[in-house]
Amino acid sequence: MTPSFPFPFRVRGSLWLFGAVAFLYLFSTSRERPWGDATPIWEVADSIAHSHNFHAKTRWPTTLPNGKDGSLYGLAPLFQCVIHVPGAYLQRTVAKIFPAYWQITWRFTSHLAPTLLGTLACLMFFGLCRRLGVGPIPAAACTVALAFATSVWVYARYPYSETLQLVCFTGFFGKLLDVRDRPTWRQAALLGMWAGLLVNAKPVFVLSGLGAGLFLAWELRRNWRVLLLVSLVSLAAALPFGAIYLWYNHLRWGSIYFTGYGLAFAGTTIGAAGGVGGVAVPVGVPHETPLLGLWGMFMSPGKSIFLYSPPLFVALLGLPRFFRRFRHIVLAMVLTILPCLYVHAQMISWAGDFAWGPRYLTFALAVLLIPAAFLVEDVLANASRLRRWLGVAGVSAVLLFGGFVTYLGNAIYWDHYIRIETEAVQAWLGVPNNTGDGISIPGAPCPVCSETIYSLQWVPAFNHIVGNYWLLTHLPKNDTWSVAENDAPWRRYTNLHVNIQLNYARARVDWWFVDYRHVFPTLAWTLVIALPLLSVGFLLLFLLEIRRAWRLLRDPAEPAQPPAGETLSAST
Q1: Contact at 8 Å (CB) between 360 and 350?
Q2: In angstroms, what is the C-alpha Rg of the chain?
Q3: 498 φψ region: left (φ > 0), alpha (ψ -120 to 50), beta (else)
Q4: What count of Cα atoms within 13 Å lies in the side-chain half-sphere of residue 289?
Q5: pLDDT, tens digit (0-9, with 9 covering 90-100), for 451-484
Q6: What pLDDT is recorded for position 442?
């Protein structure tokens, strides 16, 4: 059986953790409005809140057809839009009362949902570590690592859906382990609900649901009655969420089977049955070799997950020992994570194209980090004094490096460097011929095709982390493009001077305070002082709770379990 809640932790401690992370996320939030995929997501949320319909205003991607009634709809599932409805409502409400503040309000409200979801994911990870038997100090340390030394912090600053996927998958995975240990109808119903939310966050996660079914079939194979009960109850709980997803497809496109994605998979087209309005996605779109795609996600010089979330390196070191102790959890990881990655690995934009790091791996960061917590625990508990100090120093170095990398990802919005990189590649290595990509409109560029983004993934001269560091050394000083280009990363490989004037002019430090400290000085300075102070205050209270839990563990006279109603579950 999996350990359950080895150290006492009061509900107030969870609130302190939530506040510490959330206020720092808000303090560091982006100055950018919703761009790219996030634009129609926010527009649909705004329409739901104020127009009481599901219409978008921006056609994205540009080849997306109108819906069955001629109106324009967003491509994303409804759940990705619904999470922004409170923010959209708040933004319009504040703008009515204080019209002059609508721009600065928009910057916070459009990022509110991913910020709170990213914070919730950290809280859920802490609960999952606690449920599996990790001690208070390693659980807290790895939670801080997840919050501030991985890509979670970057995606908590932008209105994309990555933190939503992270929350849903972490809750789903935690509840899967609960069902394995306590296969009751209540746990099965909660698993079905999490599965329904996960698929509504992104439809490809239906493969994770199938993997979870295989996992439970194997783990409960000796008790077929319990397996049948769990299966039926989980499916019944998931059906309403599936019905909502299919209804939204029919509302937009006139068919419950058409998603609008037209996902290219192994030379065929999924989700494009019949097309819409006479538009169909072409069959035979180029696709990646799956093993090469997986290699790129984990080992490429430009998109390796270990570069953008360094704490996973600690998890990798701890994986062999973790496997010997929790083989069933590793099996659950493989069956629920790998199928989705396999699908993404076959896409020519498998790395997440215009984004920070391998965006399609963000959903699994919390689960993949679990072995790191056990490695830290073993080092603190069992190693000699010298090895303990060396281990703490090594882990601290990895966390500091991860925090620095994440800081670079936050300092410059990813789109700015990628556009400069594309401009430099074409001037140095030539303009690619993308007439055979099978996706783009003839004569138009394809920003997600291999011809365009190969350099970002495979050419070390254009590593995004190094590129953001380079920009950060010049933008605050208002250096001209010609000055900045003199020590650009690619200049280590070529003496050619590249004209980057067009896209360098768009680049800027990505922090809301830079925009509004002069426009609204009183409000801006109040927030920039109050938010970090609140974060530090909540962090100190959280550390006091960790100290209390550690002391209670060491004192056998104290109760080992918290009072009823004071536990933090692995899924909430």
Answers
A1: yes
A2: 24
A3: beta
A4: 4
A5: 888 899 999 999 999 999 999 999 999 999 999 9
A6: 65
